[in-house]
């Protein structure tokens, strides 16, 4: 039987198998969620019922019992002992009778109220509980309640007679004895009623536990069945992949034979290039200046994160256009150029890190505007996806003699940090990064502003420390701002610092903003190059 089922599913195509697997898993998870909700509502219903219909009425009964004992019976004893006057006792007894009447009415009202209908709880109890008919005795409850009503009437009547005969000491003593007997009797009835309600509460608790255990068992069985279905469908998918793999192997083998024939003439050149590359690799490793390979990899990974993210979105855009049938040659050319641009920048990053601490780095004249726009161009896909608006305010372009790629890395670090802050704290329609460039005396000043809420005061003094980060390990290494500080201060003889401000970044609304101020001397850079 199982083989027939497997062979039947094996005839499905790959897409149908995948969709069926997703459907089974999704339906199973939805069923588990529904069962969990059923259990939760059922338990909530039972506990609410226990609390509202059992606990609160029990408190009312205890109050009635205590009132008879303390406020009436003890007051009668005080009258007998002549500790208080009859007038004082009469006030206490009248107040006690009012309290008793109020509590008794509230008790009966709570028992007469119909609990809220929760169909899930009722269905579960209907199929899973069988003892309710044995322990819920409405006749007994009604009988006890009627006896209590009669006793209350008798006690009220005798208290009235007590008022008429309080001057006759002999009659008064007889009434006292009868009242004590009546009060003791009504307390016994109230105790019986309390025990009855407690018994119902305990039995309902047992039903709740039974229903919960059955639902848990059903949930576990559902999980096992889903797991088995998933394994079976996964096996079918793997077999399908194997067949595809064999087919592709045959095609690749055919193409390989053709490539071998074409590459025979290039074999010697390839061997020579491989030897040259090995020599270059040896020289590169010998000339490395970083303290450890781990630190180098962390630094490169930090700088590659944004261009890799942009390349990923370019690849995804091909898939999206393909699915929509809108893939054009112009679109391919545009995205390929963008990808090559990002790859070239990643390649330059490797060279920059390789020579990061080299004393013989060369400077060049470049436009600060071009450098900033180049950095934002590298990040444009990530910024567009995040819905971040860019504002440039560069009244006068400034040419400096410095390290173009290193300064671009500083801007990339600031862009990446601003993007993370904006995506975490600001709605997509309000995300803004603003860059202001100006010359102040002999310095070039770059203000880098975002409205992401600023840096918390308790960590503001740590943001330039190495390996300090508030992000997850997969999202940041904590070296971006540290590297930026090293580049600006040690390589460009400038300064960088941060502060929180309130700023009309879009000239409309005030925002809590983070401001990074970069100062780079212009004259000193030129003089140093001239030397």
TrEMBL record:
Identify the residues that the record assigns to the Histidine kinase domain, covering every copy.
Answer: 299-524
Asked if the keyword ATP-binding belongs to this entry, the reply reads yes
Q: What is its EC number?
A: 2.7.13.3
Q: What is this protein called?
A: histidine kinase
Q: Which GO terms describe its molecular function?
A: ATP binding; phosphorelay sensor kinase activity
Question: From which domain of life does this come?
Answer: Bacteria
Residues crossing the lipid bilayer are 20-43, 214-238
Q: Which reaction does it catalyse?
A: ATP + protein L-histidine = ADP + protein N-phospho-L-histidine
Organism of origin is Malaciobacter molluscorum LMG 25693
Q: Which Gene3D superfamilies does this UniProt record tie to the protein?
A: 1.10.287.130, Histidine kinase-like ATPase, C-terminal domain
For the keyword DNA repair, the answer is no
């Amino acid at each position: 039987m199982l083989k027939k089922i497997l062979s039947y599913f094996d005839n499905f195509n790959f897409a149908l198998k995948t969709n069926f697997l997703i459907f089974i898993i999704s339906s199973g998870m939805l069923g588990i969620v529904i069962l969990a909700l059923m259990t939760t509502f059922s338990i909530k219903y039972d506990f609410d019922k226990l609390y509202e219909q059992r606990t609160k009425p029990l408190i009312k009964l205890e109050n009635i019992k205590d009132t008879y004992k303390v406020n009436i019976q003890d007051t009668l004893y005080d009258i007998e002992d002549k500790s208080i006057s009859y007038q004082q006792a009469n006030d206490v007894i009248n107040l006690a009778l009012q309290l008793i009447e109020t509590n008794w009415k509230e008790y009966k009202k709570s028992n007469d109220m119909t609990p809220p209908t929760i169909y899930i709880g009722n269905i579960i109890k209907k199929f899973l509980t069988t003892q309710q008919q044995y322990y819920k005795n409405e006749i007994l409850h009604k009988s006890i309640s009627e006896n209590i009503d009669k006793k209350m009437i008798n006690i009220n009547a005798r208290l009235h007679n007590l008022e008429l005969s309080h001057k006759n000491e002999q009659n008064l003593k007889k009434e006292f004895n009868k009242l004590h007997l009546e009060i003791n009797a009504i307390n016994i009835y109230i105790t019986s009623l309390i025990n009855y309600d407690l018994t119902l509460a305990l039995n309902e608790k047992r039903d709740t536990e039974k229903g919960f255990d059955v639902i848990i068992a059903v949930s576990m069985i559902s999980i096992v069945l889903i797991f088995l279905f998933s394994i079976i469908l996964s096996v079918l998918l793997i077999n399908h992949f194997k067949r595809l793999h064999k087919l592709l192997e045959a095609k690749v083998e055919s193409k390989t034979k053709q490539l071998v024939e074409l590459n025979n003439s290039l074999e010697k050149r390839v061997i020579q290039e491989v030897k040259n590359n090995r020599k270059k690799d040896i020289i590169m490793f010998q000339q490395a200046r970083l303290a450890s390979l781990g630190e180098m990899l962390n630094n490169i990974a930090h700088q590659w994160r944004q261009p890799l993210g942009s390349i990923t979105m370019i690849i995804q855009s091909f898939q999206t256009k393909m699915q929509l049938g809108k893939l054009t040659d112009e679109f391919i050319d545009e995205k390929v150029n963008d990808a090559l641009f990002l790859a070239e920048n990643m390649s330059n990053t490797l060279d920059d890190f390789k020579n990061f601490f080299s004393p013989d780095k060369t400077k060049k004249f470049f436009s600060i505007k071009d450098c900033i726009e180049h950095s934002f161009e590298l990040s444009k896909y990530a910024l567009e996806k995040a819905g971040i608006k860019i504002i440039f305010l560069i009244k006068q372009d400034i040419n400096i003699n410095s390290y173009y790629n290193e300064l671009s890395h500083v801007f990339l670090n600031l862009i990446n940090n601003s993007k993370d802050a904006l995506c975490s704290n600001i709605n997509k329609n309000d995300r803004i990064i603003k860059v202001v460039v100006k010359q102040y005396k002999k310095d070039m000043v770059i203000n880098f502003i975002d409205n992401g809420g600023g840096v918390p005061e308790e960590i503001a003094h740590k943001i330039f420390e190495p390996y300090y980060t508030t992000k997850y390990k997969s999202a940041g290494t904590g070296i971006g701002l540290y590297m930026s500080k090293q580049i600006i201060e040690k390589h460009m003889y400038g300064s960088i610092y941060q502060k929180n401000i309130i700023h009309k970044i879009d000239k409309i609304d005030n925002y809590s903003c983070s401001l990074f101020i970069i100062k780079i001397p212009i004259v000193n850079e030129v003089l140093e190059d001239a030397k």
